[in-house]
Amino acid sequence: MNLTLDDLSVRRGGAALLRELSLRVPDGQVVGLVGPNGSGKSTALRCVYRALRPNAGTVWLDDEELPRMSARHAAQHVAAMTQDADLDLDFTVTEMLALGRTPHLRGGRTPGRAERELCERVMDQVGIRELAHRGVVTLSGGERQRVLLARALVQEPRVLILDEPTNHLDLRHQTELLSLLRRQEVSVLVVLHDLNLAAAACDRLGVLAAGRLVAAGTPEDVLSAELVREVFGVRASVVPHPLNGCPQLLFDLDHPATR
Ligand SMILES: Nc1ncnc2c1ncn2[C@@H]1O[C@H](COP(=O)(O)OP(=O)(O)OP(=O)(O)O)[C@@H](O)[C@H]1O
Question: What is the pTM (predicted TM-score) of this model?
Answer without folding.
Answer: 0.93
